[in-house]
TrEMBL record, chain B:
PANTHER family: ANAEROBIC SULFATASE-MATURATING ENZYME HOMOLOG ASLB-RELATED
UniProt record similarity statement: Belongs to the radical SAM superfamily. Anaerobic sulfatase-maturating enzyme family.
Keywords linked to the UniProt accession: 4Fe-4S, Iron, Iron-sulfur, Metal-binding, S-adenosyl-L-methionine
Pfam family, one: Radical_SAM
Gene Ontology terms for molecular function: 4 iron, 4 sulfur cluster binding; metal ion binding; oxidoreductase activity
Species assigned in the record: Candidatus Galacturonatibacter soehngenii
Transmembrane region(s): none
Residue ranges constituting the Radical SAM core domain according to the UniProt record: 81-243
Protein name: Radical SAM protein
Keyword Iron included in the entry's annotation: yes
Lipid biosynthesis recorded as keyword: no
Cofactor: [4Fe-4S] cluster
Length: 410, 473
């Protein structure tokens, strides 16, 4: 009998320009890389070409190889056999169509980052003038914020921001507080206001590890996530050392994560040690590698790339929007709006004239324009819909929003 | 784990003999292979593609929640019933006495004071709602009777909006029978970017069968001459709506549309069956003949049009794809919480569209009977009345919670209202269910023929429509 084999509705074959490709399983989250030979076969099978026809169209493929390959796919539950051509309705949320239907299109902010202050007593290596870049720069201190001119977000403006983003269905808010001990009362007032708006997740990023017990205890009274940024150094000093002692003492520390800033490989042992301590104390940790700007391109090109797992939402969303910038909005202390804390060349407006942010060339267009399908080097890469791309880093290193300089995979 | 018996799906076998299931709760389609795999079914649960019964449990509804929901929907449009008068007496007209809950033909005109108040109210609400959706544009539609009977008011409304609400890029539209499109009217519509959609049921003999003047005379000649004028002025084909019934000859209508460059059929729609005995006039033989003809057209469509890129705006493309378009749209529902006000079925939220009658009362839409207003132009939307209406509706659809198509049924206020409020008629449900199943099968047959073309045909259709509208703006 002439048999057909099709990937399941939840499995997507994405070809690569080089002839290879990848299979995304949006049920399990797995992404499989496939060879050129496999990619050729899947392409035909996915076009409802029968197994026998595949053999005649690809004479260099041996029948045993083809059967064992397909059986492997079946065993792994990514597809199955059919006795006739069949229609597979792929499991995707069509964001493009949703945006093109006027009655459906609506702006949805997924994450708002708000910088409350530009004052910090700590001197980190990454701080102004910013010489370093790294991963997770949107939730770290970017090094661009610190200034001699003291500035705090006005409470009135903050209220305006919360009120505006809640109407655009924003559920996740990140408050950047470089140094909470500088004007503690003000920051707690900000938190009081934020919690009134009933966001699903409020995260505060504390740039300075110098935090007293009282402040930490007060923070833990709120239902919020706390990220404390900590540089990993071989020689620890003062407050940086004492943070562990504080965390050990307080209850409820599971709400706290430590964000380790790592500059070079020399601190590897120290990092392992610190991770152990955080684990022992039930504290989450995030590691962010920072590289000097002038060495960054070389570093990224010569080190392994990490990709995200896939899902129905991310696979669909990333086809139309940038995986990180899509749905993201950043407010500085003036209430000025940017697509990201590190893309400050692209001011989109101000909270006092929020409508302007969403005009014809507005922020929502920016989310779409920066999608991987619009980055010439990436648009034919098979893993582009799971890539941990950072447009800000690419922009800083390549001086172009649509360049990809940290990857040589084509 | 949910057992197969508890899954809410519709199973259909395509023309080619393949078996498919539609998981109606999440709007997804799978081959029936999925039912054989416990692992995949578990994923369906985990990823919220199968909804548990609590997803459909009613939640608290109050005035504030309703107000927010209306604002989130961004006040889709203002429809002004500028007149109840009409110079036609179409045989299927909802105001012609065939539909017991609808008004009869009248001769009332809306006055300027009412219209102005309605406009001011709409823009006030729109500006408040803008913060929930910055990309929406206001839309003002003129409805009748035949709206052009009160052209002076339409003109005054548009000039007032242009003068008073300069910050807005307003989209105007009206549906007309086409006979009152004088040169003056056409020039005004052109100058002010009004999208006029004309009702045209096909060639002369088809159109004149139902669309007649009060003396019974056919209206085709008078309409068509104006369509040509309108098309010349706008330098594009005129958008039309084509209504058909059992006696319509789809083949003739199709030939007419595909050979008439002055018109593009925007939408084909059958004469409304709910709330009327309109269809009792047709014999069983006529119904069988119509179905046979439709089958023949479907065969022609599948073999000559589906898969041909040059025929995307073809009449049969609209006729067949329109009715099953929802199955092609990939709006997968992965939500764990049901954001809808009415958890089952899909009615509009009363107030998201503002329909203002000649007297200045606000109704859910132009299609519902005018027995329950939800406000007026003096006092605005009456949220208390809206809450009551929604609660009444929810109570009447309690039984829908265990229905196979509970999350995507097209039932709304218009369909289930009767003399005593709302009532879900089993015969109506059965009809909706069977139609949906038929449409699902049609969608699968088209996709099996050429899935890539199907997606492209829909995208191209919307793109071309968008281009036309852009040209207009």
């Amino acid at each position: 009998m002439n048999m057909y084999f099709r990937l399941f509705e939840e499995c997507f074959f994405v070809p690569d320009r080089g002839g290879t490709g990848a299979i995304y399983n949006v049920f399990s989250g797995d992404i499989y890389k496939v060879t050129e030979k496999e990619a050729g076969i899947i392409k035909l099978l996915e076009s409802n070409v029968s197994i026998n026809e595949v053999l005649s169209k690809m004479p260099h493929i041996k029948k045993d190889y083809l059967i064992s390959l397909i059986n492997l796919y079946k065993e792994n539950e990514i597809g199955t056999f059919y006795d006739k051509p069949v229609y597979i309705n792929k499991l995707i949320i069509d964001y493009k169509a949703m945006n093109n239907i006027p009655v459906m299109s609506s702006i949805m902010i997924t994450r708002a980052i708000i910088s409350l202050s530009n004052q910090c007593r700590q001197k980190c290596k990454l701080c102004y003038p910013a010489q370093y870049l790294g991963d997770n720069t949107c939730i770290c201190c970017s090094g661009l914020e610190k200034s001699n001119i003291e500035q705090y977000m006005e409470i009135k403006k903050l209220n305006k921001i919360f009120s505006a983003i809640v109407k655009l269905k924003c559920k996740n808010v990140v408050l950047k507080i470089p140094d909470i001990e500088v004007k503690t009362e003000y920051f707690f007032q900000c938190l009081d206001i934020a919690t009134e708006y009933l966001f699903e997740n409020i995260t505060v990023l504390l740039g300075n590890t110098c935090i007293c017990d009282k402040t930490l205890n007060n923070l833990l009274n709120y239902n919020i996530n706390i990220i404390i940024q900590k540089e990993v150094k071989n020689k620890e000093i003062g407050s940086s050392l004492s943070i562990y002692n504080r965390l050990k003492k307080i209850k409820g520390h599971k709400k706290i994560s430590l964000l380790f800033i790592v500059y070079d490989d020399e601190v590897k042992n120290k990092l392992v040690e610190e991770i152990q301590i955080t684990n022992e104390n039930g504290i989450n940790c995030i590691i962010s590698k920072y590289i000097e700007k002038e060495n960054a391109i070389n570093y990224y090109l010569n080190n392994p790339k990490f990709v995200n797992r896939t899902s129905i939402e991310s696979f669909s969303y990333n086809q139309y929007f940038h995986s990180c910038l899509g749905g993201l909005i950043y407010f500085d202390q003036n209430g000025d709006v940017y697509p990201c804390p590190n893309l400050l060349d692209f001011k989109m407006g101000n909270i006092n004239n929020f409508k302007e942010v969403w005009n014809k060339e507005g922020l929502h267009k920016f989310w779409h324009l920066t999608s991987m399908d619009n980055i010439s080097k990436c648009k034919t890469c098979a893993i582009r819909y799971a890539c941990k791309d950072c447009r800000a880093n690419e922009y800083i290193l390549g001086s172009d929003l649509f360049k990809k300089v940290t990857c040589n995979k084509i | 784990m949910m057992t197969e018996e508890k899954l809410y799906y519709t199973k259909v076998v395509s023309e080619n003999g393949n078996e498919y299931v539609r998981l109606n709760d999440s709007h997804t389609i799978f081959t029936s292979e999925i039912l054989k795999s416990p692992k995949r079914i578990k994923y369906l649960e985990k990823l919220n593609l199968l909804k548990e019964s609590r997803f459909f449990e009613d939640e608290k509804i109050d005035e504030e929640i309703i107000r927010r929901k209306i604002y989130e929907s961004a006040l889709q449009q203002l429809t002004l019933e500028v007149t109840t008068a009409c110079n036609f007496r179409c045989k299927y007209c909802v105001f012609g006495g065939n539909y017991k809950l609808m008004r009869s033909h009248e001769t009332k005109n809306m006055d300027w004071t009412t219209a102005k108040k309605a406009i001011d109210l709409y823009f006030k609400l729109f500006s408040e709602a803008e913060e929930y959706n910055y990309t929406r544009k206001p839309m003002v539609t003129f409805y009748g009777g035949e709206p052009l009977i009160n052209f002076t008011l339409i003109k005054d409304c548009i000039l007032y909006i242009e003068q008073q609400y300069t910050n807005y890029d307003v989209h105007y539209s009206l549906t007309t029978n086409g006979t009152l499109l004088t040169d003056e009217v056409i020039d005004f519509l052109y100058l002010h970017n009004v999208n006029a959609v004309v009702s045209l049921d096909g060639p002369k003999e088809e159109h004149n069968r139902n669309r007649v003047y009060s003396n019974g005379k056919g209206t085709f000649d008078d309409v068509y001459i104006n369509i040509i004028k309108l098309s010349k002025k706008f330098r594009r084909p005129v958008f039309t709506i084509c209504v058909y019934d059992i006696r319509s000859d789809i083949e003739k209508i199709s030939t007419f549309y595909d050979n008439t460059s002055a018109v593009i059929c925007l939408n084909t729609t059958p004469v409304k069956s709910f709330g009327s005995d309109y269809y009792t006039q047709f014999t069983e033989k006529e119904k069988i003949d119509f179905n046979e003809k439709e089958k023949k057209m479907k065969y022609y469509f599948m073999n000559n049009i589906a898969g041909d890129n040059s025929k995307v705006l073809n009449f049969l493309d609209r006729y067949f794809i329109d009715r099953c378009a929802t199955f092609f749209c990939s709006f997968v529902d992965t939500h764990s919480v049901n954001g809808k006000i009415t958890k089952c079925t899909n009615p509009c939220i009363p107030g998201q569209k503002i329909f203002v009658s000649v007297e200045g009362r606000i109704y859910v839409c132009e299609k519902v009977s005018q027995s329950y207003s939800i406000g007026n132009v003096e006092e605005g939307l009456n949220y208390k009345k809206i809450v009551n209406l929604v609660k009444q509706y929810c109570e009447s659809i309690v039984g829908c919670k265990v229905c196979e198509i509970r999350n995507e049924c097209g039932v709304c206020n218009m369909i289930i209202e009767n003399d005593n409020g709302f009532n879900v008629d089993k015969a109506v449900c059965e009809s909706i269910y069977n139609t949906r199943k038929k449409q699902f099968k049609l969608a699968l047959d088209i996709c099996e023929k050429d899935p890539i073309w199907t997606k492209m045909a829909i995208a191209l259709y919307y793109k071309s429509m968008e281009e036309e509208v852009k040209n207009l703006l």
